[in-house]
C-alpha cells in the first residue's frame, strides 16, 4: 500500500433516506442542498452525505448531483425490497402509503390499507415503517415526493402485478422531470 492510499475502516452503505434524496433530485434536478433539505425534511448535512453515498453506489453523478435514472429505477425495483425490507406493524392511524396511496386509486383493489403511522393521519391501516422518519409529512411538505415514496413502498410490499404497476408509475413520474 502506498502512503497516499487511504484505508477505509468500514464499508459505506446506502441508507433508506438516500433513496428519497435521489428521488427528489430526479424530480427537481437543480435543487440546492438547502432546498433539497427543506423539501424532504432532512438536514442539509444528511442530504450532502446521501449524495456522496449515492455517488459511491453509482446511482448518481456526485459532481453534478444528477441521478442516473435508469440505474436508480432498477435499484428501486429490484434492490430496495431486499435492502430495505418492509416492516409491518399493527393497525393504526396514519398517512396512506403503497397501494393505499393516491397514485394507485382505481388501479389496484386493496384488501387492507397500509399507512405510515402519524397521529395527524387521515386513514387507518396496517403500519408500514417508512424509508425515513419524516415521511408522514410529505403529503403536506412535498406531494410529488410523497407519491414517489408511496410507489416505492408498493415495490417493497406488493405482489408481482402491483410491483409492475408501481414500476410503470415510477418511470412515468421520473420521465416528467427529465
This entry's quaternary arrangement is single chain
Provide the gyration radius in Å: 17 Å
Summarize the helix and strand pattern as letters. Answer: HHHEEHEEEHHH
Quickly give the structural class: alpha+beta
Q: Catalogue the unreliable spans.
A: none
Strand segment count: 5
The largest sheet, given as strand count, sense and whether it forms a barrel, is: 3 strands, mixed
Cα shape:
globular
Strand percentage: 5-15%
Task: Give the N-terminus to C-terminus distance in angstroms.
Answer: 43 Å
The proportion of residues forming helix, as a percent range, comes to 40-55%
Q: What number of structural domains do the residues give? A: 2
The whole-number mean of residue pLDDT values reads 91
Q: Count of helical segments?
A: 7
General description of the model:
The protein is globular, with a radius of gyration of 17 Å. The strands form 2 sheets. Strands 3, 4 and 5 form a 3-stranded mixed sheet that branches. The chain contains 7 helices and 5 strands. It has 2 domains: 16-83; 88-177, no CATH class. 48% of the residues lie in helices and 13% in strands. By secondary structure, it is of the alpha+beta class. α1 packs antiparallel against α4 (69-83). β1 and β2 (66-67) form a beta hairpin.
SSE arrangement:
Blueprint: H1 16-27, H2 33-40, H3 44-56, E1 60-61, E2 66-67, H4 69-83, E3 88-97, E4 114-117, E5 123-128, H5 138-141, H6 143-157, H7 160-177
Parallel strand pairs: 4-5
Antiparallel strand pairs: 1-2, 3-4, 3-5
Helix pairs in contact: 1-3, 1-4, 1-6, 2-3, 4-6, 6-7
